[in-house]
Amino acid sequence: MQNSEYFERSRLVPIVQVVDPVTESGATIFSDESSNNSKRLIVACRGSANTKNFGTNLNFKLVPANRLSQNSVPDGALIHEGFQDAAVGLWKELANPLLSKIEEEGIESIIFTGHSLGAATALLTSVHYSTAMSSSSSSPAIITFGGPKFCNGVLARYLRNDVLQGSAILHFVHNRDPILSNNQKLWKDLGFVDVGIELECDPNNPKVYSTNDEKPKSMFSMAWNILDHCNYMGVFVGPRVA
After folding, report:
1. Type and span of the H or E element at 27
2. How far apart are CA 115 and CA 12, in angstroms?
3. What's the predicted TM-score (pTM) here?
């Protein structure tokens, strides 16, 4: 792995890969070898890769957020049922190897990341992680790409201001992503909102736009190419054929 193109670019070393046997949501824990000053882990949650994953995406009924390892979820906090179930199952597989590695190695920081379905499970597993760790532990960072909205405002505020207080929560999106573009009305009608800060990026180049930047306009009135859902900042993040 250290001789691969991906290692040369990212300096990430895989430690363990896990899959929830029920929902088949997956994640890989990486050691970040690019940092000389701190010990850091990356938890990368996989996007949709099979029919069960797509079934999870479509199970978007809003249900009470009562499976997030929290004892004080406010009344009226609602969440996408499929993503809540997937995150619960994935955390059961992640918890032991992740927490053991942190204790053994004296890990100082951790980033949860993912694309699409993996964006949702990354944020939600970071909630389980934050509950499992002591209050003196450093807050996780959450960085997602092409992620869906998955909860109502009551839960979003609770996660942002209480459970993940002090965490950087960044959602990278772009206007050519058909999954995001074509589901905005559905998410609005369901009352879904973002937990963190949404940042617009370029699909083909490592660029994040500020509010003053002139963003490229889409050639089409509607985003339609599914491959654009998998292109973020010049990297293809979709499924790869072995």
Report:
1. strand 26-32
2. 17
3. 0.91
Alpha helices in 77-199 (DSSP H): 81-105, 117-132, 153-158, 178-190
| Burial grade of 199 (CB within 10 A; 0-12, 13-18, 19 or more) | middle
> How many angstroms separate the CA atoms of 213 and 79, rounded?
34
Q: So what's the pLDDT on residue 219?
A: 41
- Write the single-letter amino acid at 100: S
In whole angstroms, what is the distance from residue 117 CA to residue 145 CA?
10
- List, as one string, the DSSP characters of 32-81: ETT-SSS-EEEEEE----SHHHHHHHH---EEE---SS-S-PPTT-EEEH
* Distant-in-sequence, close-in-space partners of 107: CB < 8 Å, separation ≥ 6: 39, 40, 41, 101
Sign for the CA dihedral angle at 117, 87, 201, 149 comes to: positive
The C-alpha atoms of residue 27 and residue 197 are separated, in whole angstroms, by 23
pLDDT tens digits, 200-241: 999 999 999 987 666 666 544 456 788 899 999 999 988 765
Q: What is the largest CA-CA distance in the chain?
A: 52
Q: What is the pLDDT of residues 24-67, one digit of tens each?
A: 999 999 998 876 656 889 999 999 999 999 999 999 899 999 99
How far is it, in rounded angstroms, from Cα 242 to Cα 227?
A: 18
For 198, phi then psi, to 5°, come to -90, 125
